[in-house]
Each structure stands twice: as C-alpha cells, then as structure tokens.
Amino acid sequence: MARNGKYDQPERRPAVVTGASSGIGAATALSLAAAGYPVALGARRTDKLDEVAAQIRADGGEAVTHPLDLTEQASVETFAKAVAAELGDIEVVVSNAGAVAPGTIVEVDSERFTRELDLTVVGAHRLVKAFVPGMIERRRGDVVFISSDTAVRARPFMAAYSAGKWGLEGMAQSLQMELEGTGVRASVVRPGPTWSEMGADWDADEAGFVLTQWVRFGMARHPHFMKPAAVADAITTVVSAPRGVHLSLVEVNPEAPLEER
Predict the structure, then answer these.
(1) What's the number of domains the chain is made of?
(2) Which bin fits 91, alpha (ψ -120 to 50), beta or left (φ > 0)?
(3) Gap between the Cα atoms of 126 and 215, Å rounded
(4) Phi, psi (deg, nearest 5) at residue 183
(5) Which one in 98, 169, 201, 213 has a CA-CA gap of 20 to 30 Å to 177?
(6) Are 257 and 52 in contact (CB under 8 A)?
(7) For residues 254 and 244, is the Cβ–Cβ distance under 8 A?
(8) Domain that holds residue 173
(9) 125 inside domain
(10) Any idea which residues carry the catalytic annotation?
(11) How far apart are CA 238 and CA 247, in angstroms?
C-alpha cells in the first residue's frame, strides 16, 4: 500500500478509551497518552476518570473526561459529540467496558444476565455506531475490542461474562470482514488472567470456590496474573501499527513462573 497522501496516518490521532476509570482501561489511557495520543476517557465513575486524566496531564499528555454509560444510547451519543468537539475527529476507539459476577447459570436471574450481555456486546455495538461511520468516511481509523480468554475457554460460574466475550468476538470478526478495503482496522485483544478491580467485590468464599473450580477444569495452570499495563501496551502496539499492517488478533497471557530444575 502506498505510504503517502491519504494512506498516511495523521500526526494527531485522538483516542477514546471506555471503562477507563480503572484496570485495563485506565492503563490503556496512560499508555496511549505516553505514546502521544490525545485521550478521551469514558466511564460512569467520573471521579476515577479525573484521577487518571490528572496523571496523564502531569506527565505532559492531553486528556479529557466525560461520563459514559454504554448501556444507554443517549449517553453514548452525548459522549461521542463531546469528545469530538474537544479533541477533533476520533481516530482510535478502545472498547473495554465489562462486568462479571459469580453464579451458576440456573441461579442467575435473566435480568442480570441480560445486563451483562447488554454492556459487553450491545454496548460495543453502540460505540461502533457512534464512531466507525466517521472513520469509514475518512478512510482510516482503529477500533479495538478488549475480549478475554473466556471467549475461547468458557469458565464456570461466570457464564454471562463468557457468553458476552464470545459474542463480542463474533461481532468483531464480522466487522473485520465488513470493513475490509475501507481503511478502518477492527482488532481484538484477548487478555488472559489480569489483576484488576473486576471481581474485587466478590464475596471471599464465593471467589475461593470459583477459583477452585477453575483449577478442577484445568483453567488455572499457574498462579501468575498480569498487570493491566501489559495489556495496555499491547493495545497501543495494535493501534500504532503502520498503514498496510493489521494486527487483527493479539493474545496476551501471563508467563508461567520458572520451574525449579
């Protein structure tokens, strides 16, 4: 592909990060800002967003924050207009919001199951509708969906989360094909076990039981977890790839501890 004219990336590439109040989202905002991207942070906990944005600005980066609830169409539309007005055309969107709670499929009520799917899958679709048409018109852009290893290895006692990530990857792969030839890249980053606030509000006994069941089914081969920054750096690498290169799927997993000889 030609490396000049309309095929070049602009020097200024404003980026949106959802679920940016903590964990992978916050780390991604910090990583992108450090790489020179102006960053718009979105989440429901605006006080946490302000803390991340303050850190970015202290380090010399550019950041704005706006409340965002991916389960509300009006919230997504308002957010999209606000960040474009402040930063300009959005070049990068990182869809990162998600929620997980323990429970068996037969015990979890359908309303909770629906809420988790709405956030993970439909929320990502709302982002696509808000930002990707402009990218197609400009013939460039990156949208990155943060999945999970549960998308290929479903885990017990968190079925809605697993189902949501499976559905998210299905949507992302369809989008990749539909965007082929438009100049817009849709990518999936699939993290393995990562330290974050997700699951931090679980009852200790419930959490212990679930982890024990993961071991039973061979889903906890070793005790190491990654820091969110490891996933964030992978996301930055994906969106920083030069035109003509598409990192369509990146898996990031914690390295196992060294075995004693």
Answers:
(1) 1
(2) alpha
(3) 36
(4) 90, -5
(5) 98
(6) no
(7) no
(8) 12-242
(9) yes
(10) 147, 161, 165
(11) 6
